[in-house]
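Same chain as my last thread, 566 residues:
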Amino acid sequence: MSEQPFIRTAARFFRKLTPRARLAFCELPLTLIVAGLVIAAPTVWPGLLQNRLFVAGVLLHGILFLSCLLVPWERLAPSASLAIPILDLVALCFTRNGAFSAIPGLITLAIFPVIWLSASGLLSKTSLILSFVGPFLIALPSVVSHLPHPTGSDISSVVLLPLMMFAVAVSIRLAGSNARLQQRRVKQRDHVLRQLLAASRERETLLKTILDTIDVGIVAVDQKGETVLINNQQKAFLQMAMPAEGRPGLAEQDRLVFGQDRRTPLSPEKGPIRRAVEGDTFSDYLVWFGAGTGQRAISTAARGMKNEFDDGFGGAVIVFKDVTDVVDALAAKDELVANVSHEFGSPLTSILGNIDLVLRGSQDLQPETRRDLEVAERNAERLRALVEDLLLSAVAVESVHLRRTDLAGLVENSLVSAQAQADAAHVGLVADVPAPLWANADPLRLGQALDNLVSNAIKYSPGGGLVTVRAERNDGWVRLEVEDTGMGMTTDESTRIFTRFFRTNSARQARIPGVGLGLSITKSIVERHGGSITCNSRPGGGSTFTVALPAGPPLEKSNAGSPALS
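reply #2:
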Protein backbone atom coordinates (compact mmCIF):
# COMPACT_ATOMS: atom_id res chain seq x y z
CA MET A 1 0.00 0.00 0.00
CA SER A 2 1.37 3.44 -0.91
CA GLU A 3 1.79 6.23 1.64
CA GLN A 4 -1.13 8.45 0.62
CA PRO A 5 -3.81 5.71 0.70
CA PHE A 6 -2.44 4.53 4.07
CA ILE A 7 -2.70 8.03 5.53
CA ARG A 8 -6.25 8.46 4.18
CA THR A 9 -7.25 5.06 5.59
CA ALA A 10 -5.76 5.90 8.99
CA ALA A 11 -7.53 9.28 9.02
CA ARG A 12 -10.89 7.67 8.20
CA PHE A 13 -10.30 5.05 10.95
CA PHE A 14 -9.42 7.75 13.51
CA ARG A 15 -12.50 9.86 12.67
CA LYS A 16 -14.77 6.85 13.25
CA LEU A 17 -13.51 6.43 16.84
CA THR A 18 -15.37 7.82 19.86
CA PRO A 19 -13.89 10.88 21.65
CA ARG A 20 -12.64 8.66 24.50
CA ALA A 21 -10.96 6.21 22.12
CA ARG A 22 -9.30 9.06 20.19
CA LEU A 23 -7.85 10.55 23.40
CA ALA A 24 -6.65 7.11 24.51
CA PHE A 25 -4.90 6.57 21.17
CA CYS A 26 -3.18 9.97 21.49
CA GLU A 27 -2.05 9.19 25.05
CA LEU A 28 -1.06 5.59 24.36
CA PRO A 29 2.54 6.14 22.99
CA LEU A 30 3.70 8.12 26.03
CA THR A 31 1.96 5.69 28.41
CA LEU A 32 3.65 2.68 26.79
CA ILE A 33 7.10 4.30 27.06
CA VAL A 34 6.58 5.12 30.75
CA ALA A 35 5.27 1.59 31.37
CA GLY A 36 8.38 0.20 29.65
CA LEU A 37 10.60 2.29 31.95
CA VAL A 38 8.79 0.95 34.99
CA ILE A 39 9.17 -2.65 33.82
CA ALA A 40 12.89 -2.20 33.04
CA ALA A 41 13.73 -0.16 36.16
CA PRO A 42 14.40 -3.06 38.63
CA THR A 43 16.90 -4.59 36.24
CA VAL A 44 18.47 -1.60 34.53
CA TRP A 45 18.14 1.14 37.14
CA PRO A 46 17.98 -0.43 40.61
CA GLY A 47 16.53 1.91 43.21
CA LEU A 48 14.66 4.04 40.62
CA LEU A 49 11.27 2.87 41.84
CA GLN A 50 12.19 4.14 45.34
CA ASN A 51 12.32 7.71 44.03
CA ARG A 52 9.13 9.45 45.09
CA LEU A 53 9.13 12.02 42.28
CA PHE A 54 9.52 9.27 39.66
CA VAL A 55 6.78 7.17 41.23
CA ALA A 56 4.49 10.22 41.47
CA GLY A 57 5.06 10.96 37.80
CA VAL A 58 4.36 7.33 36.82
CA LEU A 59 1.13 7.34 38.83
CA LEU A 60 0.04 10.60 37.23
CA HIS A 61 0.67 9.12 33.76
CA GLY A 62 -1.46 6.12 34.65
CA ILE A 63 -4.26 8.32 36.01
CA LEU A 64 -4.21 10.44 32.83
CA PHE A 65 -4.49 7.35 30.60
CA LEU A 66 -7.42 6.02 32.62
CA SER A 67 -9.10 9.43 32.52
CA CYS A 68 -8.95 9.30 28.72
CA LEU A 69 -11.12 6.18 28.87
CA LEU A 70 -13.40 7.03 31.80
CA VAL A 71 -14.19 10.76 31.52
CA PRO A 72 -17.22 11.50 29.27
CA TRP A 73 -15.32 13.81 26.93
CA GLU A 74 -18.16 13.83 24.39
CA ARG A 75 -20.19 15.90 26.85
CA LEU A 76 -17.44 18.46 27.38
CA ALA A 77 -16.13 21.25 25.21
CA PRO A 78 -13.48 20.22 22.63
CA SER A 79 -10.82 22.35 24.38
CA ALA A 80 -11.30 20.39 27.61
CA SER A 81 -9.35 17.47 26.15
CA LEU A 82 -6.20 19.65 26.13
CA ALA A 83 -6.00 19.13 29.89
CA ILE A 84 -4.46 15.70 29.15
CA PRO A 85 -1.31 16.92 27.28
CA ILE A 86 -0.90 19.84 29.72
CA LEU A 87 -0.97 17.45 32.69
CA ASP A 88 1.39 15.18 30.72
CA LEU A 89 3.96 17.98 30.92
CA VAL A 90 3.45 18.11 34.71
CA ALA A 91 3.82 14.34 34.98
CA LEU A 92 6.98 14.45 32.86
CA CYS A 93 8.41 17.10 35.20
CA PHE A 94 8.08 14.59 38.07
CA THR A 95 9.26 11.59 36.04
CA ARG A 96 12.26 13.33 34.44
CA ASN A 97 13.53 15.05 37.57
CA GLY A 98 12.99 11.92 39.67
CA ALA A 99 15.04 9.83 37.23
CA PHE A 100 17.48 12.60 36.14
CA SER A 101 20.57 10.93 37.58
CA ALA A 102 19.70 7.59 35.94
CA ILE A 103 17.94 8.70 32.73
CA PRO A 104 18.72 12.38 31.94
CA GLY A 105 17.23 12.19 28.44
CA LEU A 106 13.64 11.73 29.58
CA ILE A 107 12.96 15.40 28.82
CA THR A 108 12.71 14.48 25.16
CA LEU A 109 9.42 12.73 25.94
CA ALA A 110 7.93 16.24 26.10
CA ILE A 111 7.66 16.00 22.30
CA PHE A 112 4.46 13.93 22.68
CA PRO A 113 2.34 16.51 24.57
CA VAL A 114 3.88 19.32 22.48
CA ILE A 115 2.78 17.61 19.24
CA TRP A 116 -0.67 16.94 20.72
CA LEU A 117 -1.14 20.58 21.73
CA SER A 118 0.08 21.92 18.40
CA ALA A 119 -1.83 19.50 16.18
CA SER A 120 -5.13 19.98 17.99
CA GLY A 121 -5.76 23.35 16.36
CA LEU A 122 -7.28 24.60 19.63
CA LEU A 123 -6.02 27.44 21.85
CA SER A 124 -3.28 28.25 19.35
CA LYS A 125 -1.48 30.95 21.35
CA THR A 126 -1.68 29.02 24.64
CA SER A 127 -0.42 25.87 22.92
CA LEU A 128 2.61 27.66 21.49
CA ILE A 129 3.44 29.19 24.87
CA LEU A 130 3.12 25.86 26.64
CA SER A 131 5.32 24.16 24.03
CA PHE A 132 8.20 26.39 25.21
CA VAL A 133 7.33 26.91 28.89
CA GLY A 134 6.56 23.24 29.60
CA PRO A 135 9.98 21.83 28.52
CA PHE A 136 11.67 24.87 30.15
CA LEU A 137 10.05 24.15 33.53
CA ILE A 138 10.84 20.44 33.19
CA ALA A 139 14.56 21.21 32.65
CA LEU A 140 14.78 24.06 35.17
CA PRO A 141 15.14 22.00 38.45
CA SER A 142 18.31 20.26 37.26
CA VAL A 143 19.85 23.64 36.40
CA VAL A 144 18.90 25.07 39.80
CA SER A 145 20.42 22.08 41.58
CA HIS A 146 23.78 22.77 39.91
CA LEU A 147 23.92 26.49 40.65
CA PRO A 148 26.16 28.44 40.78
CA HIS A 149 28.03 26.25 38.33
CA PRO A 150 25.56 24.70 35.89
CA THR A 151 26.95 22.34 33.30
CA GLY A 152 26.74 22.78 29.54
CA SER A 153 24.23 19.95 29.41
CA ASP A 154 22.04 21.84 31.88
CA ILE A 155 22.13 25.01 29.82
CA SER A 156 21.38 23.18 26.58
CA SER A 157 18.44 21.36 28.18
CA VAL A 158 16.94 24.56 29.60
CA VAL A 159 17.50 26.70 26.48
CA LEU A 160 18.01 24.67 23.34
CA LEU A 161 15.48 21.94 24.04
CA PRO A 162 12.56 24.35 24.77
CA LEU A 163 13.47 26.30 21.65
CA MET A 164 13.46 23.09 19.59
CA MET A 165 10.09 22.12 21.05
CA PHE A 166 8.74 25.58 20.24
CA ALA A 167 10.05 25.31 16.68
CA VAL A 168 8.38 21.91 16.30
CA ALA A 169 5.13 23.36 17.66
CA VAL A 170 5.27 26.28 15.22
CA SER A 171 5.98 23.94 12.28
CA ILE A 172 3.12 21.63 13.21
CA ARG A 173 0.82 24.63 13.71
CA LEU A 174 1.69 26.05 10.28
CA ALA A 175 1.39 22.65 8.62
CA GLY A 176 -1.93 22.06 10.34
CA SER A 177 -3.22 25.50 9.33
CA ASN A 178 -2.18 24.88 5.76
CA ALA A 179 -3.77 21.44 5.82
CA ARG A 180 -7.02 22.85 7.22
CA LEU A 181 -6.95 25.60 4.59
CA GLN A 182 -6.44 23.04 1.86
CA GLN A 183 -9.20 20.93 3.34
CA ARG A 184 -11.59 23.88 3.31
CA ARG A 185 -10.67 24.59 -0.31
CA VAL A 186 -11.17 20.94 -1.21
CA LYS A 187 -14.56 20.98 0.50
CA GLN A 188 -15.50 24.16 -1.35
CA ARG A 189 -14.41 22.69 -4.67
CA ASP A 190 -16.22 19.49 -3.82
CA HIS A 191 -19.35 21.47 -3.05
CA VAL A 192 -19.07 23.39 -6.31
CA LEU A 193 -18.42 20.19 -8.25
CA ARG A 194 -21.43 18.54 -6.64
CA GLN A 195 -23.57 21.52 -7.61
CA LEU A 196 -22.24 21.42 -11.17
CA LEU A 197 -22.79 17.67 -11.32
CA ALA A 198 -26.36 18.07 -10.08
CA ALA A 199 -27.00 20.85 -12.60
CA SER A 200 -25.40 18.76 -15.34
CA ARG A 201 -27.62 15.81 -14.47
CA GLU A 202 -30.67 18.06 -14.51
CA ARG A 203 -29.72 19.41 -17.94
CA GLU A 204 -29.00 15.89 -19.16
CA THR A 205 -32.41 14.73 -17.96
CA LEU A 206 -34.06 17.76 -19.56
CA LEU A 207 -32.23 17.21 -22.84
CA LYS A 208 -33.10 13.50 -22.87
CA THR A 209 -36.74 14.30 -22.15
CA ILE A 210 -36.85 16.86 -24.96
CA LEU A 211 -35.11 14.54 -27.43
CA ASP A 212 -37.46 11.68 -26.59
CA THR A 213 -40.52 13.94 -26.85
CA ILE A 214 -39.99 15.29 -30.34
CA ASP A 215 -40.97 13.27 -33.42
CA VAL A 216 -37.60 13.76 -35.09
CA GLY A 217 -34.83 11.18 -34.98
CA ILE A 218 -31.49 12.56 -33.80
CA VAL A 219 -28.07 10.93 -33.89
CA ALA A 220 -24.84 12.52 -32.65
CA VAL A 221 -21.49 11.00 -33.60
CA ASP A 222 -17.96 11.82 -32.55
CA GLN A 223 -14.98 12.45 -34.83
CA LYS A 224 -14.41 8.70 -35.16
CA GLY A 225 -17.98 8.08 -36.26
CA GLU A 226 -19.00 6.43 -32.98
CA THR A 227 -22.56 7.14 -31.83
CA VAL A 228 -22.61 9.26 -28.67
CA LEU A 229 -26.33 10.10 -28.57
CA ILE A 230 -29.48 8.66 -30.08
CA ASN A 231 -33.10 9.36 -29.16
CA ASN A 232 -36.09 7.03 -29.04
CA GLN A 233 -37.54 8.23 -32.35
CA GLN A 234 -34.33 7.33 -34.15
CA LYS A 235 -34.36 3.90 -32.54
CA ALA A 236 -37.87 3.48 -33.95
CA PHE A 237 -36.60 4.50 -37.42
CA LEU A 238 -33.80 1.93 -37.17
CA GLN A 239 -36.32 -0.72 -36.17
CA MET A 240 -38.41 0.30 -39.18
CA ALA A 241 -35.42 -0.39 -41.44
CA MET A 242 -34.95 -3.86 -39.96
CA PRO A 243 -35.74 -6.75 -42.32
CA ALA A 244 -38.65 -9.02 -41.40
CA GLU A 245 -36.19 -11.75 -40.46
CA GLY A 246 -33.96 -9.24 -38.66
CA ARG A 247 -32.25 -10.12 -35.44
CA PRO A 248 -30.83 -8.02 -32.60
CA GLY A 249 -27.42 -6.57 -33.40
CA LEU A 250 -28.03 -6.66 -37.15
CA ALA A 251 -25.28 -4.84 -39.04
CA GLU A 252 -26.20 -1.48 -40.51
CA GLN A 253 -25.33 -2.57 -44.05
CA ASP A 254 -28.10 -5.20 -43.81
CA ARG A 255 -30.86 -2.72 -43.04
CA LEU A 256 -33.48 -1.78 -45.62
CA VAL A 257 -32.50 1.72 -46.72
CA PHE A 258 -33.10 2.86 -50.29
CA GLY A 259 -32.50 5.84 -52.53
CA GLN A 260 -35.08 8.26 -53.82
CA ASP A 261 -36.43 5.79 -56.38
CA ARG A 262 -37.50 3.56 -53.43
CA ARG A 263 -35.92 0.52 -55.08
CA THR A 264 -32.16 1.00 -55.32
CA PRO A 265 -30.35 0.06 -52.07
CA LEU A 266 -28.45 3.03 -50.70
CA SER A 267 -24.72 2.44 -51.05
CA PRO A 268 -22.62 2.83 -47.87
CA GLU A 269 -20.84 5.99 -49.00
CA LYS A 270 -24.19 7.72 -49.65
CA GLY A 271 -25.63 6.98 -46.19
CA PRO A 272 -26.53 10.12 -44.18
CA ILE A 273 -24.33 9.23 -41.20
CA ARG A 274 -21.39 8.24 -43.39
CA ARG A 275 -21.65 11.52 -45.29
CA ALA A 276 -21.80 13.47 -42.01
CA VAL A 277 -18.75 11.66 -40.60
CA GLU A 278 -16.84 12.55 -43.77
CA GLY A 279 -17.54 16.23 -43.02
CA ASP A 280 -20.42 16.78 -45.44
CA THR A 281 -23.14 19.28 -44.53
CA PHE A 282 -26.52 18.74 -46.16
CA SER A 283 -30.27 19.16 -45.72
CA ASP A 284 -33.44 17.65 -47.24
CA TYR A 285 -31.53 14.51 -48.27
CA LEU A 286 -34.32 12.00 -48.88
CA VAL A 287 -33.96 8.26 -48.23
CA TRP A 288 -36.51 5.48 -47.79
CA PHE A 289 -36.64 3.13 -44.79
CA GLY A 290 -38.27 -0.28 -44.89
CA ALA A 291 -39.97 -2.12 -47.71
CA GLY A 292 -43.43 -2.81 -49.07
CA THR A 293 -46.46 -0.93 -47.81
CA GLY A 294 -44.65 0.08 -44.62
CA GLN A 295 -41.89 1.96 -46.46
CA ARG A 296 -41.38 5.50 -45.12
CA ALA A 297 -39.75 8.58 -46.62
CA ILE A 298 -37.11 10.04 -44.29
CA SER A 299 -35.69 13.51 -44.85
CA THR A 300 -32.21 13.85 -43.36
CA ALA A 301 -29.95 16.78 -42.54
CA ALA A 302 -26.49 17.03 -40.99
CA ARG A 303 -24.34 19.72 -39.41
CA GLY A 304 -20.75 19.24 -38.31
CA MET A 305 -19.20 20.22 -34.98
CA LYS A 306 -15.75 21.75 -34.74
CA ASN A 307 -13.06 20.53 -32.39
CA GLU A 308 -12.39 23.23 -29.77
CA PHE A 309 -8.66 22.48 -29.74
CA ASP A 310 -7.61 22.55 -33.39
CA ASP A 311 -10.84 23.76 -35.06
CA GLY A 312 -11.00 20.46 -36.95
CA PHE A 313 -13.87 18.02 -37.31
CA GLY A 314 -15.23 17.13 -33.89
CA GLY A 315 -18.32 15.16 -34.81
CA ALA A 316 -21.73 15.75 -36.33
CA VAL A 317 -25.44 15.79 -35.55
CA ILE A 318 -27.76 14.07 -38.03
CA VAL A 319 -31.52 14.65 -38.02
CA PHE A 320 -34.05 12.18 -39.46
CA LYS A 321 -37.67 13.28 -40.09
CA ASP A 322 -40.54 11.22 -41.43
CA VAL A 323 -41.94 13.12 -44.45
CA THR A 324 -43.93 10.30 -46.01
CA ASP A 325 -47.19 12.26 -45.82
CA VAL A 326 -45.56 15.27 -47.49
CA VAL A 327 -44.04 13.11 -50.23
CA ASP A 328 -47.37 11.38 -50.83
CA ALA A 329 -49.15 14.73 -50.98
CA LEU A 330 -46.63 16.06 -53.50
CA ALA A 331 -46.98 12.89 -55.56
CA ALA A 332 -50.77 13.27 -55.55
CA LYS A 333 -50.42 16.88 -56.60
CA ASP A 334 -48.03 15.93 -59.39
CA GLU A 335 -50.46 13.28 -60.57
CA LEU A 336 -53.30 15.81 -60.57
CA VAL A 337 -51.19 18.33 -62.48
CA ALA A 338 -50.15 15.66 -64.97
CA ASN A 339 -53.75 14.53 -65.52
CA VAL A 340 -55.08 18.05 -65.92
CA SER A 341 -52.19 19.02 -68.19
CA HIS A 342 -52.77 15.91 -70.28
CA GLU A 343 -56.45 16.78 -70.61
CA PHE A 344 -55.46 20.28 -71.71
CA GLY A 345 -53.07 18.91 -74.31
CA SER A 346 -55.58 17.48 -76.81
CA PRO A 347 -57.86 20.56 -76.98
CA LEU A 348 -54.84 22.84 -77.34
CA THR A 349 -53.45 20.72 -80.16
CA SER A 350 -56.82 20.91 -81.92
CA ILE A 351 -57.05 24.66 -81.40
CA LEU A 352 -53.54 25.27 -82.72
CA GLY A 353 -54.09 22.94 -85.67
CA ASN A 354 -57.29 24.68 -86.73
CA ILE A 355 -55.81 28.14 -86.29
CA ASP A 356 -52.85 27.08 -88.41
CA LEU A 357 -55.19 25.72 -91.11
CA VAL A 358 -57.13 28.97 -91.18
CA LEU A 359 -53.99 31.10 -91.34
CA ARG A 360 -52.39 29.00 -94.08
CA GLY A 361 -55.51 28.09 -96.07
CA SER A 362 -57.32 31.41 -96.27
CA GLN A 363 -55.57 33.99 -98.43
CA ASP A 364 -58.39 36.54 -98.28
CA LEU A 365 -58.43 37.08 -94.52
CA GLN A 366 -58.83 40.62 -93.40
CA PRO A 367 -55.68 42.07 -91.78
CA GLU A 368 -57.51 42.58 -88.47
CA THR A 369 -58.81 39.00 -88.51
CA ARG A 370 -55.36 37.62 -89.30
CA ARG A 371 -53.86 39.70 -86.49
CA ASP A 372 -56.46 38.38 -84.03
CA LEU A 373 -55.81 34.83 -85.14
CA GLU A 374 -52.07 35.29 -84.72
CA VAL A 375 -52.62 36.62 -81.19
CA ALA A 376 -54.78 33.58 -80.42
CA GLU A 377 -52.14 31.26 -81.90
CA ARG A 378 -49.37 32.94 -79.92
CA ASN A 379 -51.22 32.63 -76.61
CA ALA A 380 -52.24 29.06 -77.39
CA GLU A 381 -48.58 28.25 -78.05
CA ARG A 382 -47.70 29.85 -74.74
CA LEU A 383 -50.38 27.83 -73.00
CA ARG A 384 -49.12 24.63 -74.64
CA ALA A 385 -45.57 25.43 -73.46
CA LEU A 386 -46.92 25.88 -69.94
CA VAL A 387 -48.75 22.54 -70.15
CA GLU A 388 -45.58 20.84 -71.39
CA ASP A 389 -43.61 22.32 -68.50
CA LEU A 390 -46.22 21.10 -66.03
CA LEU A 391 -46.13 17.62 -67.51
CA LEU A 392 -42.34 17.68 -67.45
CA SER A 393 -42.23 18.78 -63.80
CA ALA A 394 -44.57 15.93 -62.88
CA VAL A 395 -42.88 13.08 -64.69
CA ALA A 396 -39.35 14.20 -65.54
CA VAL A 397 -37.73 12.68 -62.50
CA GLU A 398 -39.90 9.63 -61.99
CA SER A 399 -37.18 7.39 -63.41
CA VAL A 400 -33.45 8.11 -63.18
CA HIS A 401 -31.23 5.42 -64.67
CA LEU A 402 -27.66 5.83 -63.46
CA ARG A 403 -24.72 4.66 -65.51
CA ARG A 404 -21.11 5.66 -66.08
CA THR A 405 -21.33 9.02 -67.85
CA ASP A 406 -18.78 11.52 -69.11
CA LEU A 407 -19.97 14.88 -67.75
CA ALA A 408 -17.55 16.74 -70.03
CA GLY A 409 -19.52 15.46 -73.01
CA LEU A 410 -22.81 16.57 -71.42
CA VAL A 411 -21.45 20.07 -70.85
CA GLU A 412 -20.19 20.27 -74.44
CA ASN A 413 -23.56 19.13 -75.86
CA SER A 414 -25.44 21.60 -73.67
CA LEU A 415 -23.28 24.55 -74.76
CA VAL A 416 -23.59 23.58 -78.43
CA SER A 417 -27.38 23.41 -78.10
CA ALA A 418 -27.48 26.83 -76.40
CA GLN A 419 -25.11 28.55 -78.81
CA ALA A 420 -27.86 29.99 -81.01
CA GLN A 421 -29.73 31.39 -78.00
CA ALA A 422 -26.48 32.84 -76.65
CA ASP A 423 -25.61 34.48 -79.97
CA ALA A 424 -29.03 36.09 -80.16
CA ALA A 425 -28.62 37.45 -76.63
CA HIS A 426 -24.99 38.55 -77.21
CA VAL A 427 -23.82 36.22 -74.43
CA GLY A 428 -20.49 34.40 -74.56
CA LEU A 429 -20.21 30.74 -73.52
CA VAL A 430 -17.06 29.39 -71.83
CA ALA A 431 -16.38 25.85 -70.59
CA ASP A 432 -13.70 24.91 -68.07
CA VAL A 433 -14.23 21.18 -67.67
CA PRO A 434 -11.54 18.45 -67.59
CA ALA A 435 -12.16 15.62 -70.04
CA PRO A 436 -13.11 12.95 -69.41
CA LEU A 437 -15.00 13.58 -66.15
CA TRP A 438 -16.74 10.36 -65.16
CA ALA A 439 -19.64 10.07 -62.74
CA ASN A 440 -22.66 7.86 -62.14
CA ALA A 441 -25.50 9.80 -63.72
CA ASP A 442 -28.51 9.59 -66.01
CA PRO A 443 -27.21 11.43 -69.10
CA LEU A 444 -30.71 12.30 -70.32
CA ARG A 445 -31.99 13.76 -67.05
CA LEU A 446 -28.71 15.41 -66.04
CA GLY A 447 -28.41 16.88 -69.55
CA GLN A 448 -31.91 18.27 -69.12
CA ALA A 449 -30.89 19.87 -65.80
CA LEU A 450 -27.73 21.32 -67.34
CA ASP A 451 -29.74 22.69 -70.30
CA ASN A 452 -32.08 24.43 -67.85
CA LEU A 453 -29.20 26.05 -65.97
CA VAL A 454 -27.41 27.26 -69.12
CA SER A 455 -30.66 28.47 -70.73
CA ASN A 456 -31.58 30.40 -67.57
CA ALA A 457 -28.10 31.92 -67.35
CA ILE A 458 -28.47 33.21 -70.93
CA LYS A 459 -32.09 34.30 -70.51
CA TYR A 460 -31.39 36.31 -67.35
CA SER A 461 -28.46 38.14 -68.95
CA PRO A 462 -30.59 40.41 -71.18
CA GLY A 463 -27.83 42.96 -71.61
CA GLY A 464 -25.28 40.40 -72.83
CA GLY A 465 -22.44 39.05 -70.78
CA LEU A 466 -20.64 35.78 -70.16
CA VAL A 467 -21.78 32.32 -69.02
CA THR A 468 -19.08 30.03 -67.65
CA VAL A 469 -19.48 26.33 -66.93
CA ARG A 470 -16.88 24.75 -64.65
CA ALA A 471 -16.54 21.24 -63.29
CA GLU A 472 -14.13 19.36 -61.03
CA ARG A 473 -13.91 16.14 -59.07
CA ASN A 474 -12.86 16.35 -55.42
CA ASP A 475 -13.19 14.00 -52.44
CA GLY A 476 -15.58 11.63 -54.16
CA TRP A 477 -17.84 14.41 -55.41
CA VAL A 478 -18.28 16.09 -58.78
CA ARG A 479 -19.12 19.79 -58.66
CA LEU A 480 -20.62 21.63 -61.63
CA GLU A 481 -20.85 25.41 -61.63
CA VAL A 482 -22.86 27.56 -64.03
CA GLU A 483 -21.94 31.22 -63.56
CA ASP A 484 -23.41 34.21 -65.36
CA THR A 485 -22.88 37.96 -65.24
CA GLY A 486 -26.56 38.81 -65.53
CA MET A 487 -29.07 40.67 -63.39
CA GLY A 488 -28.68 38.51 -60.28
CA MET A 489 -31.13 38.44 -57.39
CA THR A 490 -31.46 39.22 -53.70
CA THR A 491 -30.51 36.79 -50.93
CA ASP A 492 -34.16 36.17 -50.09
CA GLU A 493 -34.95 35.43 -53.73
CA SER A 494 -32.00 33.05 -54.06
CA THR A 495 -33.34 30.95 -51.16
CA ARG A 496 -36.74 30.63 -52.90
CA ILE A 497 -35.51 30.29 -56.47
CA PHE A 498 -36.06 26.49 -56.55
CA THR A 499 -39.71 26.80 -55.51
CA ARG A 500 -42.23 25.96 -58.21
CA PHE A 501 -43.65 28.93 -60.09
CA PHE A 502 -41.42 31.38 -58.24
CA ARG A 503 -40.03 34.25 -60.30
CA THR A 504 -37.94 37.20 -59.19
CA ASN A 505 -39.23 40.77 -59.28
CA SER A 506 -36.53 41.81 -61.74
CA ALA A 507 -37.48 38.98 -64.11
CA ARG A 508 -41.14 40.00 -64.05
CA GLN A 509 -40.29 43.68 -64.53
CA ALA A 510 -38.02 42.83 -67.48
CA ARG A 511 -40.86 40.71 -68.95
CA ILE A 512 -38.56 37.72 -69.39
CA PRO A 513 -40.74 34.77 -70.47
CA GLY A 514 -41.09 31.75 -68.17
CA VAL A 515 -43.32 30.21 -65.53
CA GLY A 516 -40.75 29.33 -62.84
CA LEU A 517 -40.62 25.55 -63.28
CA GLY A 518 -37.18 24.99 -64.81
CA LEU A 519 -35.12 25.30 -61.63
CA SER A 520 -37.63 23.24 -59.65
CA ILE A 521 -37.27 20.45 -62.21
CA THR A 522 -33.48 20.80 -62.09
CA LYS A 523 -33.43 20.53 -58.30
CA SER A 524 -35.58 17.36 -58.42
CA ILE A 525 -33.28 15.76 -60.98
CA VAL A 526 -30.17 16.58 -58.96
CA GLU A 527 -31.69 15.23 -55.75
CA ARG A 528 -32.69 12.02 -57.55
CA HIS A 529 -28.98 11.61 -58.27
CA GLY A 530 -28.26 11.90 -54.52
CA GLY A 531 -26.80 15.39 -54.92
CA SER A 532 -27.62 18.97 -54.06
CA ILE A 533 -27.85 22.34 -55.79
CA THR A 534 -27.23 25.80 -54.34
CA CYS A 535 -27.45 29.35 -55.60
CA ASN A 536 -25.18 32.27 -54.80
CA SER A 537 -26.21 35.62 -56.20
CA ARG A 538 -26.40 39.35 -55.65
CA PRO A 539 -28.41 42.03 -57.47
CA GLY A 540 -26.55 43.22 -60.56
CA GLY A 541 -23.66 40.85 -59.86
CA GLY A 542 -24.80 37.71 -61.63
CA SER A 543 -25.58 34.28 -60.21
CA THR A 544 -23.68 31.05 -59.65
CA PHE A 545 -25.51 27.72 -59.47
CA THR A 546 -23.46 24.86 -57.97
CA VAL A 547 -24.46 21.24 -58.45
CA ALA A 548 -22.77 18.63 -56.21
CA LEU A 549 -23.12 14.99 -57.30
CA PRO A 550 -21.67 11.88 -55.67
CA ALA A 551 -19.03 10.57 -58.08
CA GLY A 552 -18.79 7.08 -56.61
CA PRO A 553 -17.39 3.95 -58.25
CA PRO A 554 -18.86 2.56 -61.47
CA LEU A 555 -22.51 1.72 -61.10
CA GLU A 556 -22.19 -2.05 -61.37
CA LYS A 557 -19.79 -1.99 -58.39
CA SER A 558 -21.83 0.50 -56.43
CA ASN A 559 -24.98 -1.59 -56.58
CA ALA A 560 -23.24 -4.85 -55.81
CA GLY A 561 -22.98 -4.21 -52.10
CA SER A 562 -25.58 -4.33 -49.38
CA PRO A 563 -27.61 -1.29 -48.37
CA ALA A 564 -26.31 0.79 -45.51
CA LEU A 565 -27.61 3.43 -43.26
CA SER A 566 -24.38 5.22 -42.60
